[in-house]
């Protein structure tokens, strides 16, 4: 073989290699969780951080839902402007033609979606309660996929909700129909966290082998196995010869016991025995953002990071016992699998212990200018400063806590987008309120 041919065949070989990519669902599964909320600005910041981290796709919200629309449209503008540079923004929609139509009408620039419908008999019988049976589930999904394609959606995944409790032959039939209708991926949802690393491997392998469609792995932590199941599912997809897409959330926040934690999953894929280095992880992923995004999400959610959290917990690189401390000091590999520097840790953080001026919903121009001067941001004139101040007040109404420096920078830099994000107008009320009877 000549040199050029050799190079070509090597390039071909590389192009053929299946890859594990990440679709983060913090802004969908994370925020739909009981007692957990993010403002539209906080969701935007999560998208910006995920993009900086080289994440392949962010499931950024619900295009069908009225109050999401301005946020979604504004974030699609950020993508168009190149502020969100590489990451795809995808919407979550029920796999129903009408929902797809409504979503596309209100978020016209939407290019990526996941369409979701339940596939287990448990949910078909006890959730749809006779409205749909197995055949109708497939028909409804196929119709929704076709609608999405007709309306110019570039790439879409079809979600089999409760896939782990779905009859495998039916799941294969469902995925085959999705593929024929034009779906680009099938999302295997372990909605209840029922799978084990062994069962998910077998089922995803069989599914991928038969259908030959890239598989998304979506796991929950009800039995405490979420990251192991995610890694095992991804391994199965790659072993079966298709690309794997794993769903994660920042700090593992998600329905009930949560989803696969973003950082833990990346660490497991990079460093665990028989996986790390063997199963190709998306090369764009940059863990140095880990510390920043986890800290931000913790602040935004108002939920502390557990002390023993992999990678970003207070104790992830702390050693105290004699033997461990001595060993770690002699050679970090004695007691550390990976370096804290890789996760963006190691730089001391400065905490102001004296006077602090914060900006809030009732701030005035003097304090506001002081805060921005500290960030070395200068305004063109008084009018500009007043306009940004007004936006910052609105941001505080939404966040209900002091804004972070990155949030303040974002508002000053993209005021028009920020304004769109803060704007929410509920639909008209056509019927008057109910009368209350007191007994
Ligand atoms: Zn979920």
Mean pLDDT: 93
Contiguous uncertain segments of 5+ residues: none
Beta fraction: 5-15%
Order of helices and strands: HEHHEHEHEHHEHEHEHEHHHHHHH
Shape: globular
Placed side by side, the strands forming the largest sheet appear as 1-2-3-4-5-6-7-8
CATH fold-level assignment of the largest domain: TIM Barrel
Summed up, the helix count is: 17
For the record, what CATH class of the largest domain applies?
Alpha Beta
Please name the CATH architecture of the largest domain: Alpha-Beta Barrel
CATH superfamily of the largest domain, by name, is Aldolase class I
**Helicity, as a percent range:** 40-55%
| Overall tally of domains | 2
Bound molecules: zinc ion
> Main β-sheet: number of strands, strand sense, barrel status?
8 strands, parallel, barrel
- Terminal Cα span: 92 Å
